[in-house]
Design brief:
The chain is mainly beta and 541 residues long. 6% of the residues lie in helices and 35% in strands.
């Protein structure tokens, strides 16, 4: 790493001063070797790319951006021979240093030159006359690409002279694709919404999914008073996209055992997860519209379930009829628990997403917080069947865990590996399941779904009710693996895993609370299965 300026030595240490390391950094598994997974270099067709994770610091500012902690800009270090820089890296100072950028080399078979030097540079921004706290003066440059090429990153320098054109490469236009801004890195305004100033963002491909070919470069985009409609750089495209860089089944299972989270349920949780097989063999019933009086018992494999993705209300699953068994099945069974894995390519098969699906027979009722008072909401929020998931995002360059997505009701949140809580001495993250609702979070405590004054409570805490999501699991889907996986029948049941019931409880609640609560909470409606979620074939957000 580069040296900090003398002025920075006087300041308080920031998270970015520390390079993130996994708890078991010295004990990273050697993945079973086969094909192109975790081989360091990925062939995108006309380009070879390498993921650089070591950097030399160029410039820092110590205010603005997330947490008003400033940001730091870096150049990639230890670039392999024959590879060229595509752009610099930037990160907020409120996180440990943890990131990557791609460097590239043209394949010898590439026609008309896949890479080219810029012909000039445009100065996008300089802080030479600003009053922000900073290490020294910075200049952010956008390479001027020759005709038929595009710059995919910026250069940051501390000198007013334009950089040498041989320091960076531009990419032939037909090997690039559109991007969108993702998270805010830094800016001269008070927030990412202040588009009048200078802002720096992370980016990602505009089109993302299991068949999408866009490849993020890891560089930032600098915008000087511009909006998303005028993005100045693109991402790369994997024109090869034969999925040879994806893990085989043995490699995927090794990744799951290494990185699958340890999930803590709340100490007061009554509605536990189970395996789908346990749910079926303990009395779950299949109902068909028009034949409600003739429900059908579901066999352990779910082979009696209709197959399809119509979700037209013609079928649904419910708990056993008799009250004793109904209440028993509601409470799930930790001893039977099994997680269900969907392995899918992401970002042009340069990353692997492993979605870990968790089934609960029952989702408990919600509780509201109004000021300092907690109000039980009766039946509001409860329903039969509950599917939750976390997704591991893993680099296909080296098999390293990049980030984890925690599903939370109708949304969720990506958390970088550097900000996760890990099991001591292991590279397994910790996930927390919220009381009754089972939304997943990376940290314990209360998350309020609403405002600071009123909202739905999501309480999480450690307890003795804990499951290792990488212990008992079944890989149920991985389209690129083809015949290596047989999908269970229940996965292709395209209707709801619980009945739809309407009820009116508004009169029993404070008017202010009723006005805030979403209308769908005033009833019960079971969820659809994992395959009908938008994230099944697309990115999480």
């Amino acid at each position: 790493m580069g040296n900090w300026s003398s002025s920075s030595k006087k300041r308080k240490a920031l998270p970015i001063d520390t390079q993130f390391k996994f708890p078991a950094d010295d004990d990273i598994p050697v993945w079973p070797q086969d094909d192109g997974f975790a081989r360091g270099i990925i062939d995108l067709g006309e380009l070879q790319v390498f993921q650089v994770t070591s950097f030399n610091k160029v410039w820092s500012t110590f205010e603005g951006g997330p947490g008003n902690a400033g940001a730091t800009f870096f150049e990639p270090a230890s670039v392999p021979e024959g590879f060229s820089m595509l752009g610099c890296y930037a990160q907020p100072n409120n996180k440990p240093l943890f990131g990557w950028v791609l460097v590239a080399k043209a394949n010898s078979s590439a026609e008309n030159g896949a890479l080219a030097e810029p012909v000039d540079y445009t100065l996008v921004w300089t802080n030479s006359s600003s009053g922000i706290e900073q290490g020294n003066t910075a200049y952010v440059w956008l390479p001027t690409a020759p005709d038929g090429y595009k710059a995919v990153g910026h250069i940051v320098t501390t000198l007013p002279e334009k950089p040498s054109v041989d320091r960076i490469r531009c990419v032939r236009s037909n090997l690039t694709d559109e991007i969108v801004t993702h998270s805010w890195i830094w800016g001269t305004g008070k927030s990412s919404r202040d588009s009048n100033g200078f802002n720096v963002y992370n980016t990602r491909p505009k089109i993302r999914g299991i068949k999408a070919a866009g490849v993020p470069v890891g560089t930032f985009i600098a915008q000087n008073g511009r909006t998303d409609t005028s993005l100045s750089i693109p991402c790369l495209i994997n024109t090869k996209l034969d999925f040879s860089t994806m893990p085989n089944l043995d490699q995927a299972k090794a990744l799951i055992k290494t990185y699958a989270p340890l999930m803590y349920l709340h100490p007061d949780e009554k509605y536990l997860p189970s395996s789908v097989k346990w749910f079926f063999t303990n009395g779950a019933l299949l109902y068909t519209r028009g034949k409600e009086s003739e429900p059908v018992a579901i066999d352990p494999s779910g082979s009696v379930l209709p197959q399809g993705k119509d979700n037209d209300g013609a079928h649904w699953i419910d708990l056993p009829k008799d009250e004793t068994n109904r209440e028993r099945v509601k409470r799930g069974d930790l001893d039977s628990f099994q997680a269900y894995m969907h392995i899918k390519p992401m970002f042009g098969a340069t990353f692997t997403d492993i979605s870990i699906w968790i089934f609960y027979p029952f989702n408990g009722p919600s509780r509201a917080k109004v000021g300092f008072v907690t109000i039980p909401l009766g039946k509001i929020g409860q329903h039969v069947g509950d599917w939750e998931h976390v997704t591991l995002r893993i680099s296909n360059f080296n098999g390293g865990l990049n980030s984890v997505y925690f599903s939370q009701h109708s949304g969720g949140q990506w958390v970088d590996a550097s900000e996760l809580e890990f099991v001591p001495g292991k590279n397994k993250p910790i996930a927390y399941s919220s009381l009754n609702g089972h939304a997943l979070y990376s940290k314990p405590g209360l998350v309020l779904q609403g405002t600071s004054v009123i909202g739905i409570r999501n309480d999480t805490a450690k307890s003795k009710k804990v499951v290792d999501l990488g212990n008992e699991f079944e890989v149920v889907a991985g389209e690129y693996l083809r015949s290596a996986i047989t999908e269970p029948a229940w996965l292709n049941f395209g209707w709801q895993w619980g009945p739809k019931i309407s009820y009116k409880t508004e009169k029993a609640l404070p008017k202010k609370l009723v006005g805030w609560l979403p209308s769908e909470l005033f009833g019960e409606e079971g969820p659809t299965g994992p395959q009908l979620k938008s994230s099944w074939n697309e990115d999480e957000r």
